[in-house]
Known about the structure:
Two copies of one chain form a homodimer. Chain A is mainly α.
Amino acid sequence: MTSAQLTVAQVMVTVATSSWKSGVGRASKLFAGMTDEQLMEPVAPGRNRPIYLLGHLTAIHDSMHPLLGFGERLHPELDEIFVKQPDRAVAALPSTADLTTYWTVVNDALWQKIEALSPEEWVERHTAVSEEDFAKTPTRNRLSVLLSRTNHLSFHVGQLILAPK
Amino acid sequence: MTSAQLTVAQVMVTVATSSWKSGVGRASKLFAGMTDEQLMEPVAPGRNRPIYLLGHLTAIHDSMHPLLGFGERLHPELDEIFVKQPDRAVAALPSTADLTTYWTVVNDALWQKIEALSPEEWVERHTAVSEEDFAKTPTRNRLSVLLSRTNHLSFHVGQLILAPK
């Protein structure tokens, strides 16, 4: 590609990855600003508690490692409590300190890989789609996973800010 | 560009615009599924009502017309009630029927313009940034507006699904 052409796709990648990064930063700030008591209080009557959303978002972000072809997950054990089951189905959660560490470690590891990808790699298929299906639908690529997970994060951040102060 | 090079940037645009479109579709479905009573019930105690979120999202999407260089807004009058002031500050809202029409008309008009833009046009500056600042920060482009507004939409959709059934 010429540099002008490279710029179009590279600038797009920068915009998309910055949007992801700023979403993670916003959520980190919200979680860090909550007391243990606030983390245990549902965001609305009968709805998820922030502590559950912390584990849920960590699990979903962790699952992006294999989905984007970055390698193994760091904390697959989180799925049992925070993805397969709703909040309050499991009484004994990991400690807030542990969950906060997982959140940071998972997002940091992911970011290292995310910022290293080239524009061409962003439009390669993600691992949940077969080569055959990808040939038919080339939008089922890594970038679509990133944007979809960025929206998933915004969705839950919108709920987190409703948490009783 | 060669066709392979065009594909990288064009596929990225398709992924980003599809993400926007699916967010709008999801919100439309949520609003359409609510009774008048549900639209008037806050999503959580003391928080925004769905009717306010309907007007708010319509106003923000409408403001994307000038921001993306697509021309004049269709309903600038919505800002006074749904952007400049919080929910319940103004007693007399437009009717649900009118707001629903504005939502549809604004999003349809926006989509016509969105789907017509080329990859190169997506990385051009948005109108809230000066040419000078854009030269320094080329990520302040139309695509960044689209992703940011898609996240804004997801943020409020996350709240809408908490609305009492």
